[in-house]
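Fig. S4 source data, part A: sequence.
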Amino acid sequence: MDNPIIAISMGDPAGIGPEVTAKTLLGTTAYGYCRPFVVGDPEAMDAAGQMLRSGLEFRPIRDVAEARFSPPVVDVLCPPGLDLGNVRWGVLDPAMGHAAALCLRTAFELAMDGRVQGIVSAPLNKEAFHRAGYAHRDELSYAAELTHSSETCIMGVMRSTWTVAVTEHIPFREILNGITKDRVLWHIQKMNEVLLRAGTPRPRIAVAALNVHGGEGGLFGREEIDEIGPAIQAARERGIEVQGPVPADAVFVRALAGLSDGVVCMYHDQANIARKLQPKSESATIFIGLPVPCGTTAHGTAFDIAGQGIADPGSLQAALRYTARLAGAHS
């Protein structure tokens, strides 16, 4: 019973969230390293289970204390006020965006109360979320507001390599303003901290350059000289094993060959193009800096295949494994 309690938010019920959640909780594998339960609508989860002919039984609970964590029975906590009405698989619906947000809110309220040690979210559709009236740019900014968290970041995992971007969901022209020595150093330190928590005894971190060919000594830009290089030197002075600036077209070639455990990138696509070239079943997204670790998939709601029973649960399974690992270290 020492395994961490993990709340799995069902995501947008019109997408593949309930399906991949059900597939993730089939059998006993997940229960071997955590105590999972679902925050969502029992009927939506049951519909997914029936569609899959999974044999799972979805048991409504009103409180985490009622959870039994005993497969093939899956505990489902329904947030107060959640009313899905008619769920149409594959259809973008603001009501489903609101439902996904409400499930996440409930999960983080439980985290704030110390009732769960980690959260995993099935995919939320950002357009449905925004149409439901939420102005947040993504799930992390929503969670940060809910939990009053000021220093957060998004980390990706692909196979054994972790990634983080110094700038995330901002217009491309604003990236330069975000590349400062302090921000680069903060992300190096955070990467080192997370790798240690995830079980890497001596993390090796590579820092990507911003400019083509690493700036060529200032010929193509000075960010490597004025901001990124000094951040790397400051990290080394703190005892962190860090390389760079490494040209962006080489940094992942080296990382995936096993020469580094984590890559600090300068912007969103620099990290995510590399991630999305890897098998989705081996990739996950982790939100860092919240009261508890929070994982989600490296893909979206996949409305085009929702309700067909063919969605790959691998990314959600990976998110659950990594979140449980970090939650165990966190506790």
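Fig. S4 source data, part B ends here. The longest strand covers residues 153-158.
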